[in-house]
Amino acid sequence: MAAGTPRVFVSHLAGVPVFDPNGDQVGRVRDLVAMLRVGGKPPRLLGMVVEVVSRRRIFLPMTRVTGVESGQVITTGVVNMRRFEQRPTERLVLGELLDRRVRLKETDEEVTVLDVAIQQLPARRDWEIDKVFVRKGRGGALRRKGETLTVEWSAISGFSLEEHGQGTESLVATFERLRPTDVANALHHLTPKRRAEVAAALDDDRLADVLEELPGDDQVEILGKLKEDRAADVLEAMDPDDAADLLSELPEADKERLLALMRPDDAADVRRLLSYEERTAGGLMTTEPIILRPDATVADALARVRQQDLSPALAAQVYVCRSPDETPTGKYLGTVHFQRLLRDPPFTLVSSIVDSDLVPLRPDTPLPAVTSYLAAYNMVSVPVVDRSGSLLGAVTVDDVLDHLLPEDWRETDFLGEEEITGGL
Question: Could you confirm whether domain 291-404 is CATH 3.30.70.2740?
Answer without folding.
Answer: no
